[in-house]
Write a structure and sequence with these properties.
This protein is mainly β. It has helices at 29-39, 125-129, 134-137, 247-252; strands at 2-4, 9-13, 16-22, 44-55, 58-69, 73-80, 88-92, 95-100, 105-109, 138-148, 151-160, 170-176, 182-188, 194-206, 209-219, 226-236. A 14-stranded antiparallel beta sheet has the order 1-10-11-12-13-14-15-16-4-5-6-7-8-9. It has a two-stranded antiparallel sheet with strand order 2-3. The protein is globular.
């Protein structure tokens, strides 16, 4: 990773930053983050995913489906493995519930548990239901440019907005200059220690939109472990049945 602490040389072609001549006015860091975040989101989403949890001596795969409307409504249903089939999660606004079929119970997930591991993976409940918004919940500073795997990238520092209940004290985020594609994110705690890193790769067309389809997470305390989320199917910006986002559907969905 080669780091240059100067702003990238670029020009605008059809609204896209292209390496080349020095821009008169660099884009705001907030606009870059907003465009990058929007690549990964639609007004609505329906998708199927595989989540691979890799450990030194074993590997486990979870297959799940997800439906969402913006950030306010999310429903997740586990399909595999068989022993966890029917486990479901519902988020409405800032409230979240989980249904556990083997005990036939719906439990409320309090805000204090949003940073807990999701299904034993490196991802958290917050990651899966997208409680936090990079564009809305953080202040953004364009800290320089970088080169990741041959791609010129903006390097942006994110710090929480005052009174915003987010988990991370600081984030570093890399966005490809040519098309705002997210490439990497690093997460830091209140002591300034890096806790985890996420890389975005396997960039391809999904339902008419180009986006990363492989998201790999490694936690610093366990560098020999990783969690990989792979997009299998994704449908964007199509109507989603409102009845999906109900507590009664948590039990019905199994």
């Amino acid at each position: 990773m080669n780091v240059s602490k100067s702003y990238p040389r670029c020009w605008l072609v059809a609204g896209i930053m292209v390496p080349g001549i020095l821009c008169a006015q660099p884009q705001s860091a907030t606009e870059i983050i907003r465009r990058s975040e929007n690549i990964m989101r639609g007004t609505t989403q329906t998708g199927s995913y595989s989540l691979i949890i890799e450990r030194p001596d074993w590997q486990r795969t979870i297959v799940f489906e997800s439906w969402s409307v913006g950030q306010d409504r999310v429903f997740i249903l586990v399909r595999e493995p068989a022993k966890e089939r029917g486990v479901a999660f519902l988020k409405i606004d800032r409230e979240m519930w989980q249904y556990i079929p083997r005990i036939n119970r719906i439990i409320k997930i309090p805000p204090s548990m949003m940073m807990q591991s999701w299904m034993g993976s490196g991802f958290t409940n917050d990651d899966l239901v997208r409680e936090s918004s990079l564009a809305e919940d953080y202040h953004h500073t364009l800290s320089g440019s970088d080169v990741l795997d041959g791609d010129n990238a903006f390097q942006i520092m994110l710090t929480p907005e005052p009174e915003t209940p987010v988990a991370w004290n600081r984030m570093l985020y890399w966005v490809r200059q040519s098309d705002y594609m997210p490439l990497r994110a690093e997460y830091y705690n209140e002591r300034g220690d890096r806790v985890r890193a996420i890389t975005y790769s396997d960039i391809r067309d999904v339902d008419g939109r180009t986006m990363p389809t492989r998201i790999e997470l490694v936690e610093d305390r366990w560098p020999d472990r990783k969690t990989i989320m792979q997009v299998q199917v994704l449908i964007l910006d199509r109507p989603v049945d409102p009845s999906i986002f109900t507590q009664s559907n948590l039990r019905r969905s199994r």
